[in-house]
Amino acid sequence: MKCLEVEKLEAGVAVLRICREDALNALNMALLGELEETLQTLRADTSIRALILTGDGDKSFVAGADIVEMQGMTSSQAVQFSRLGHRVTRMIEDLPFPTLAGVNGYALGGGMELALSCDFICASDTAVFGLPEVGLGVIPGFGGTVRLSKWIGLSKAKELIFSGARLSSAQAEKYGLVAHIYKKEEFWISTVALAKQIASKSAGAVQAAKRLMQEEIHSNENPAKFDVEAMTFGTLFGHTDQVEGMKAFVEKRKPVFVGHGPTG
Ligand code: COA
């Protein structure tokens, strides 16, 4: 594995770490492919009782999908990219054991969407959350338009997605996104302690509870919504604002939008 690390701590706690620190752990196709493969192995590992998903370094959890790679995508490649993101987030969501997102820094775009597919979020007080895609001329493409409103309600989800605003840990806690905020220096030890507490309980009981709660979520979910998100994400590629939004990021400047998307 090039961009992932799996570490087994004692007491059935495992850590899945995204290691692409030079790009703030941004998710490209190769990394998502590695995640898909690794999650298949982890899902079958009966020794795991709790999993912490985190990012390498102290600056970023995951700063989103890889904009440099997305910049060159056609519409149909973007649809495939979104579908890969959907498979990965669904696999995380449906792991049999509890999952904690250990958000140690930026959780933006696809990074926040990865965190939303975990059972709950533990954050450092330096963490930053947001779905900034509209500032790149696209929309969240890894399930954010479907999942965020389940976490924080429709109105706040719309506010965040339409504005692309960034939330501090404290704001994210007020929004109901974050279960625990820890001081940066205590973040890791406290997140591991919580995972160990979960791992010390009856695995059969904890997993039965998770299964029931996931079934409840899925029974109220229209699976077609993910496909619609992927198709809509794809249709925005090639339009003026997507081209400008991603080019501007790469050129480290503010984008100048003209409002030209499929409906613009
Ligand atoms: N995709 C690709 N590369 C990314 C990235 C992303 N989502 N986020 C950061 N990087 C890269 C930067 O291009 C930079 O690379 P370089 O050193 O080769 O220039 C490196 O990571 C460090 O990022 P930088 O922007 O210089 O750090 P910063 O501290 O000034 O800003 C962020 C940090 C997270 C605010 C900023 O990187 C950012 O806005 N990233 C994009 C967030 C986003 O829109 N995500 C949603 C994508 S759909």
Characteristic key phrases:
2-enoyl-CoA Hydratase, Chain A, domain 1, 11 helices, alpha/beta, binds coenzyme A, 4-stranded mixed sheet, 264 residues, 10 strands
Tally of helical runs:
11
Strand order of the largest sheet: 1-2-3-5-7-10
Uncertain segments are none
Order of helices and strands: EEHEEHHEEHEEHHEHEHHHH
Number of strands: 10
Helical percent range? 40-55%
The first-to-last residue Cα distance is 42 Å
Number of domains: 1
Rg estimate, integer Å: 18 Å
CATH structural architecture: Alpha-Beta Complex
Mean pLDDT: 96
Q: What percent of residues are in strands?
A: 15-25%
Listed once per kind, the bound small molecules are: coenzyme A
Question: How is this fold's topology laid out?
Answer:
Blueprint: E1 4-8, E2 13-18, H1 29-43, E3 50-55, E4 60-62, H2 67-71, H3 75-93, E5 99-103, E6 106-108, H4 110-116, E7 120-124, E8 128-130, H5 144-152, H6 154-163, E9 166-168, H7 169-174, E10 180-182, H8 184-199, H9 203-219, H10 224-236, H11 240-250
Parallel strand pairs: 2-3, 3-5, 4-6, 5-7, 6-8, 7-10
Antiparallel strand pairs: 1-2, 8-9
The chain binds coenzyme A.
Question: Could you give a quick summary of the protein structure above?
Answer:
With 264 residues, this protein is of the alpha/beta class. It is built from eleven helices and ten strands. 45% of the residues are buried.
Descriptive account of the structure:
The protein has 264 residues and is of the alpha/beta class. It has a single domain, classed as 2-enoyl-CoA Hydratase, Chain A, domain 1. Helix content is 48%, strand content 16%. It is built from eleven helices and ten strands. Strands 1-2-3-5-7-10 form a six-stranded mixed beta sheet, with helices on both faces. A four-stranded mixed beta sheet has the order 4-6-8-9. α1 links the parallel β2 and β3. α4 crosses α5. The mean pLDDT is 96. Coenzyme A binds next to α2 and β6.
